[in-house]
Design goal:
The chain is an alpha/beta fold and about 350 residues long. Helix content is about 35%, strand content about 15%. It has two domains: about 5-110 and about 305-340, 3-Layer(aba) Sandwich (Rossmann fold); about 115-295, Rossmann fold (3-Layer(aba) Sandwich). Strand 4 (about 85), helix 4 and strand 5 (about 105-110) form a beta-alpha-beta unit. Helix 5 packs across helix 8.
Length: about 350
């Protein structure tokens, strides 16, 4: 029997439109409307106005995204019928807390979808790092001839037989490992939660962090930002890196002692590809902007532009699973919060 429109669960949205273009295109809204009641396609940007009060009173499924207001105890009191929150983005830290889990409200997110472009960016960074692409570019542009670049081609560079160190078997770290599989790399992995057998199943060699730092031609960071991982990449570990090695960070700036990183970069001994920093935007005078051996990008490894639609697709898929009584694929439980990035 066809479910009447009034019996369908009420769906609302909360996110910042200026930060979430392409996340929920019209086709995804219409897909939701076939299984639920979309109360208002325009997202709430706060929970304090009359419109939000009216919407929350009915909402059973709330789809959030970047810039969503915090779902705190006050917001939950306004949403007595709320059963599911699906975050069409990555981390839910800062968005919700224990009050929501106390109510038994289910939570899911689209972190897996956001992991894909980060891993793709990292693959490109690794390949460019191995080939010293940025160094070639700078010399070629500066001299307008090939007097310096031709001799460089005879150096021990390139991507054949190089050692790549992956720090963290996170969603992104594992996807990077998958993407590296067709290439001729030796891959080392540091992750205290992964044993030697699982590392072998992943096609990598398990290594301690110091050994990885010392052995790798390219080091790529994919650990979560937790108190235990704060500045895990410090002066001592950076000193272990090979001359000419490259350090890549697409994870979080807080994982790195950036003062120590800048100090070693100033020597010219290593290179760096940096997409994330702490603070999120470096001070105007930061050496990250000016050092010739640093390739700095403004936190773009994650979903940008049309890549954001993957986030919305995953969130809509989860909402539909919930409506159909199927298990969520990417559910977050209270105990997961302590180890999430």
């Amino acid at each position: 029997m066809t479910q009447s429109t009034s019996d369908r669960p009420a769906i609302a949205f909360a996110m910042q439109p200026s930060r979430t273009q392409h996340v929920l295109p019209e086709a995804l809204i219409q897909r939701l409307a076939t299984v639920g009641r979309v109360l208002d396609a325009a997202p709430m940007q706060g929970f304090g106005d009359d419109r939000a009060t009216k919407l929350l009173a009915e909402t059973e499924i709330l789809i959030t995204g970047w810039g969503a207001p915090t779902i705190d105890a006050t917001a939950l009191r306004q949403a007595p019928n709320l059963k599911l929150v699906v975050h069409a983005a990555g981390t839910v830290k800062g968005l919700l807390g224990d009050d929501l889990f106390d109510r038994g409200i289910q939570v899911s997110h689209s972190a897996q979808a956001n992991a894909l472009p980060v891993a793709e960016f990292t693959l490109a960074a690794i390949i460019f790092a191995g080939k010293k692409v940025f160094r070639f570019r700078d010399l070629y542009v500066a001299d307008r001839n090939r007097n310096q670049t031709v001799p460089m081609q005879a150096q021990a560079i390139g991507n054949y037989g190089r050692t790549v160190g992956i720090i963290g078997a996170s969603r992104i770290g594992r996807r990077v490992i998958e993407l590296l599989a067709p290439f001729s790399y030796r891959i080392l992995l540091y992750d205290p939660m992964v044993d030697a057998q699982e590392a072998a199943n992943l096609g990598v060699e398990k290594a301690e962090l110091d050994a990885l730092m010392a052995s790798s031609d390219i080091v790529s960071l994919h650990a979560p930002s937790l108190p235990a991982t704060h500045q895990m990449i410090n002066a001592s570990r950076l000193s272990l890196m090979k001359d000419g090695a490259t350090f890549i960070n697409t994870a979080r700036g807080a994982l790195v002692d950036e003062t120590a990183l800048i100090a070693v970069l100033k020597t010219g001994r290593i290179d760096a590809i940096i997409d994330v920093t702490d603070p999120e935007i470096p001070e105007a005078g930061s050496a990250f902007y000016d050092l010739p051996n640093v390739f700095l990008t403004p936190h773009i490894a994650g979903a940008v532009g049309l890549e954001r639609t993957r986030l919305g697709e995953m969130a809509v898929d989860e909402a539909i699973r919930f409506i159909e009584g199927k298990p969520l694929l990417y559910q977050i439980r209270r105990e997961d919060m302590a180890r999430m990035a």
